[in-house]
Amino acid sequence: MSAPRIIGLTGSIGMGKSTVAAMFADEGVPVFDADAEVRAMQGAGGELVPAIETAFPGSTDGNGVMRDVLGSRVFGDPEALARLEAIVHPAVAERRSAFLKDNEDAPFVLFDIPLLFEKGGDRGLDRIVVVSAPSAVQRERVLARDGMTADRFEKILQLQMPDSDKRARADHVIDTGVPLEQTRRKVRALVAQLREEL
Question: What is the number of structural domains in the chain?
Answer without folding.
Answer: 2
